[in-house]
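SUBJECT: protein chain
CONTENTS: sequence, structure tokens:
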Amino acid sequence: MITFLKSAENRLEVIGEAIQNCWIHAVDPTTDEIERLTALGVPQDFITYPLDLDERSRTEREDDGTTLILIRIPFYESEKADVPFGTIPLGIILTDQFILTVCRRPNDILQEFTSGRIRGLSTAKRYRFVLRLLLHTASKYLLDLREINKTVDILEDRLQASMRNKEVLDLLKYQKSLVYFTTALRGNQLVLERLQRGQMFRMYPEDEDLLEDVITENQQAIEMVNISSNILSSMMDAFASIISNNLNVVMKFLASVTIVLSIPNIITSFYGMNVSLPGEEWRWMYLAILAAMAVTSLVVVAIFAKRDWF
């Protein structure tokens, strides 16, 4: 799907075709749509690169000045997915006529831009537009990281009294998400540093300052993700030991109860034999047997309790 937008009076308006200083937003374009974009002078490779979900972050530039900035943006799949929070490529193509963004799937970042919730956007200021998109991407990583940390805190509370592997497997899913975040953010950082070394954003001092803010925000996201990843990794190791210890406590308790219950069974089995036994003619012998069972069991329970075997 292709959408053409242009800024007007501090908001974005949908237009019917590509014009000067517009923004072309393409989501999972079809073959016909790719040919339509190619007819506008955009290299076909620049359009197809972001459609590969495994594409890495990088920049490329053609002889005519057309530039591709390929980054990876955060993408929320679902809570039940194997990787709830992942990353997908986003291609930003700059020409002397318009801006073109290409992505394989709809995502929150571009939806916020197209919905008009981002104020002060101008498609005519192409470099400023790209920088704000990069800054919003870095901020989105931090927002998703907060959601991951909240979910991990909930799973941590469940794990403290758990004897199952489900919670540990849930933590493993979010650890995968953090690995994807770390890899994507490092790749984006290399792209940002390359843009800073180039001459693209030095034309306007405001744009150069905004690029520094983007780099700072991305570095903060990298550090926060690394911290969360290290904490989660240590937490998983600790809680794996806790689950094993909880299971050992239960098994110890069950073994102690089994021993205590076996004592009355031994006594009753002994006096249940069809042979002559001491006191078998005494009418109160069954009471003595019951008392012996109770006393012996209480003694064993006291010994176990003193040794903390329950």
Summary: The chain has two domains: 2-245, 246-306. DSSP finds seven helices and seven strands in the chain.
